[in-house]
Design a protein that fits this description.
globular, alpha+beta, Nucleoside Triphosphate Pyrophosphohydrolase, eight-stranded mixed beta sheet
Amino acid sequence: MKDDFLERDDLPLRIKAVLSDRTPQVLENRDFVYRHGAVLIPLFRDGREYRVLFTKRTDTVEAHKGQISFPGGRIEKTDLSLLDTALRETEEEIGLSRQAVTVLGRSDDAYTLSSNYIVHPFVGLIPYPYPFRLNAGEVKKLVEVPLELFFRTGEVMAVEYEGKIFQNLAYAYEGEVVWGATARIMRSLVEILKESFNIEH
């Protein structure tokens, strides 16, 4: 699938309009089992193509070692809001200034199954190219994936992680696999956009 709308100059404005016109699904934290975190879904344009910027985590981080994820992390007491958390963590992890992010809106919450977080995602348009500075203790490298991929693929597949096999929604691209909460967050955003843009496939 290669829908023309994915190459439109006004795609970020259309995404912003869609997200501002709806209330995000918020997950309950009954019995305070879950911690809270916030992430940024960074979109950028490379030529005619919009892409999503992910991080590949190092093998030394506390949770989700080596996985593909969004920049972001846990809420700190000094954060002013969930969005402030996402922007602060993004700046700490990849050196992207919060002033460089054009926030397009908030998407639906998601649970992480292994680390017990409720993740609050925000979508932002970022400049490209950009002089990113990676936090070597947290981020091994950046991974750029065409936005189009999430509109045309995605399947439940066996993913091996730390010696275990997980049946999970996953998206494969150039040797990397986006799965787990990150894949669910992307699917949720894509489903929101598909419904609003009347895309059936």
